[in-house]
């Protein structure tokens, strides 16, 4: 009964120590971050960012340390949370910002909600979707799906969501995070078609915190990738080297994982499903490829240019 809103929190947080419970919906979810160092004796040095919203706007929420293995997988995009005994901190200024699906939504960027095991010990409850009441005024999850025919007109670094039928998936490759560092990023290339163009989406998929999905991307699966960024080479021929890469907030879903996801209500997703019903599976199977080395963007045709 005694709830507060994100808008009220931003106005009153400096004058309070204890805060009323919050009722929010998860709109975005970052990958899990490990920040352990050999000299620091932390049991579970993990951190994950979420963007949560209520009727008043959107704010960042940070899940810390041992709460991550306990809660990270349960807090999906679209999940409704009741938060009690949380802390409020000033925002970390250098974190990545997802692009909201609803451009009208107010963003509270000065503070963030901090969820810890102690000081104070946060109490988290997940509210089942069927018991969520319309009068709570929680926003729906909105997406920015694009078709392949729309991609060529989008600017570099534009944020979008895509759905397609996988026709190619490459082997997992590694790239160094820093030139002489020991850490690597793991990624793989994939192609997906949606029937709106002769060209596929070319997708650079970095391993997110969903290894069970990343490892099972196969040809002929329906692939959904959210919060992707457009990358185009503005120097050479711009149309030939346009591809999409994952961001810190990207989520990837394949056949078997779509049930109950909020994007299933999206018009472009429904259109794609209608298109797949008109396709012959045997014909598409003939065009699919898996594995092998995929150099992209392609090197120039002659050695002098190279």
Automatic annotation (TrEMBL):
| Name this protein carries in UniProt | RADX protein
The signal sequence is none
Pfam short name (any one): RADX
What high-level taxonomic lineage is stated for the organism? Eukaryota, Metazoa, Chordata, Craniata, Vertebrata
Q: Which organism is it from?
A: Balaeniceps rex
Q: Name one GO molecular function term.
A: single-stranded DNA binding
